[in-house]
Amino acid sequence: MSLDIVILAAGQGTRMRSALPKVLHPIAGQSMLAHVLQTARSLKPASIQVVIGHGAELVREQLAAADVSFVVQSEQLGTGHAVAQAIPHLKAENTLVLYGDVPLIEGATLESLLTHLSADSMALLTVNLTNPAGYGRIVRNQANAVQAIVEHKDASPEQLKICEGNTGILAVPRQRLIDWLGRLSNSNAQGEYYLTDIIAMAVADDLRVATETASDAMEVQGANDRLQLSELERHYQQRAARRLMAQGVTLLDPVRFDLRGEVSVGRDVLIDINVILEGKVEIADNVSIGPNCVIKDSILRAGAVIKANSHLEGADVGEGADCGPFARLRPGTVLAARAHVGNFVELKNTRLGEGAKAGHLTYLGDSDIGARSNIGAGTITCNYDGANKFKTVMGEDVFIGSNSSLVAPLNLGDGSTTGAGSTITADVPAHALAVGRGRQRNLENWPRPKKR
Ligand code: UD1
Ligand code: CA
Fold first, then answer.
1. Do 34 and 126 belong to one domain?
2. Which residue out of 54, 116, 152, 360 is catalytically annotated?
3. Handedness of CA 207, 213, 219, 223 (dihedral sign)
4. Shortest-distance ligand to the CA of residue 166
5. Ligand 1: distance of its center to the CA of 11 in Å?
6. Strand duo 311-313 + 327-329: pairing
7. Which of 58, 86, 163, 215 could form an S-S bond across to 49 if both were Cys, CB 3.0 to 4.6 Å?
8. Which ligand sits closest to the CA of 194?
């Protein structure tokens, strides 16, 4: 079966009260439309047509991709009119309609929906609601066969009692769709061309309207305002937390965990409260992450320990290495196995060798630090002269005294030492001690100044 997917995304989203087009509002750090596109792609369609209107340029700019086509609907005359804009680009046997503001729809649900499609049947996704206000109602006959969808504003008091609502998601043989869309009228309560009117046309043409019912109303919920957006966000996060726990992760509080990207996890991972994972994060076996950490695009290898309030981006934390509390690992940080980074330490584009330590109050930038070296408290690599950046290279077993300024470019040989408080501007040979500071003088019996 070949399939084109049409995603409706032209609406303004007035109730968002936002300059941003509705479908660009994020769920879990990604626009709603991006979520729908990801799910659409999972079905391997022949094409994806996104119908845009409000904020069209911005939407196109943010979501342009080789496998996505955009169709502009310059006036929003209704969902039927919106789908009709895509007709010239539809080539496959069947068409599936999705919505840019219904972000949590899952591939598996759509796959079961599509099993109902054939040359003489179309497929409609419905949802049972306790409060169906606003939804189109599914009208069935005595034999329980779908007869029509009636929009809330056009429904009779009897029809308003129906609790089976239209999700809007449907799949139709393309030729039929083109025929029906061409016959839509806008003589209804809203003066719109309703996509939902094709259901009665299908029935009149002796097509079977097969339904699939969404098991979870949130999966087909649209976001019309910020409250609904937040509800969808929480639902997404709950789903993500459950998945991780099913994979063997301990989340000390699943309600205080946020995933804004993708994560892969090993066994016996422990995640404390208020942890945010962003981008692409890989977590191996026995990793533990303390409370209030933000971890973005990073790899945490087996047994790594990230202590409270640490911020990691683009970091590779080696086996058994640890950092924090209050560590900041910036892009290009590599901690080799069992390296240790303590509190108030910032690393950028720096490799800390196996078992090396930077325990306190330190900035290491553009550095390569050998195994077992020890960086004293308050050490700063002066890697930037205001125009260019320079590298600091340290061998193994180097000992940097506290409060040293290492003015790059600099090489410190194996086993070298710097005295505390030194400003080191020249290379240090292996096993040498470098002292770069004023020598101490003691002035005996020195009279302190007195207040005049
Ligand atoms: C629609 C359905 C209703 C269903 C409900 C589910 C119709 C006529 N009604 O109603 O049966 O229960 O969704 O949420 O289809 N859009 C466009 N261009 C347009 C009009 C709409 O792109 O000209 C997009 C909107 O941006 C939105 C979606 O289509 O993403 C739905 O449109 P909306 O006007 O919100 O339809 P509802 O009245 O909610
Ligand atoms: Ca709507």
1. yes
2. 360
3. positive
4. 1
5. 8
6. parallel
7. 86
8. 1
Cα 6 to ligand 2 centroid, rounded to whole Å: 16
Q: Which two tokens stand for residue 197?
A: 């009117």
Q: What integer is the mean pLDDT of 291-296?
A: 99
Q: Residue of the nearest CA to atom 25 in ligand 1?
A: 11
Q: Answer whether 54's CB lies under 8 Å from 11's CB.
A: yes
Q: Which two tokens stand for residue 163?
A: 């609790």
Percent of the residues in the chain that have a pLDDT greater than 90, as a whole number = 99
pLDDT band at 333 (very low <50, low <70, confident <90, very high): very high
Q: Which two tokens stand for residue 373?
A: 């070296």
Q: Are residues 245 and 143 in the same domain?
A: no
The protein residues having their C-beta less than 5 angstroms from ligand 2 (an ion) are: 222
- Would you state the pLDDT for residue 12? 87
214 with 234, same domain: the answer is no
User: Catalytic site residue 360?
Assistant: yes
pLDDT at 66: 97
What tens digit of pLDDT does each residue of 221-257 get?
999 999 999 999 999 999 999 999 999 999 999 999 9
State the DSSP H helix or E strand holding residue 71, giving kind and residue range, or none if neither: strand 69-72
The CA-based angle 318-362-278, given to 5 degrees, is: 50
Mean pLDDT of the 394-416 span: 98
What pLDDT digit, counting tens, does each position of 109-129 carry?
A: 999 999 999 999 999 999 999
- Return the sign of the alpha-carbon dihedral for residues 111, 117, 122, 128: negative
Residues with CB under 6 A from ligand 1: 8-11, 51, 73, 76-79, 81-82, 99-101, 135-136, 149, 151, 165-168, 194-196, 222
- Other Cβ atoms less than 10 A from the Cβ of 268: the count is 14
- Residues 296 and 370 occupy one common structural domain: yes
Q: Tell me, yes or no, whether 265 lies in a domain.
A: yes
Same-domain status, 137 and 235 = no
* Range 158-164 average pLDDT: 98
Q: 177: number of CA atoms within 13 Å, CB side? A: 31
Q: Are 201 and 242 found together in one domain?
A: no
Ligand 2 centroid to Cα of residue 255, in Å, is 28
Q: What is the number of the ligand 1 atom nearest to the C-alpha of 13?
A: 26
- In sequence order, what are the residues at sequence separation of 6 or more whose Cβ sits closer than 8 angstroms to the Cβ of residue 288? 269, 270, 271, 272, 304, 305, 306
Which domain does 200 fall in, by range? 3-220
* pLDDT average, residue stretch 347-353: 98
User: What type of residue is 75?
Assistant: E
Distance of alpha carbon 187 from alpha carbon 199, whole angstroms:
16
**Are residues 240 and 389 located together in one domain of the fold?**
yes
Ligand in nearest proximity to the CA of 165: 1
Total of domains in the chain: 2
- Are 235 and 254 within 8 A, CB to CB? no
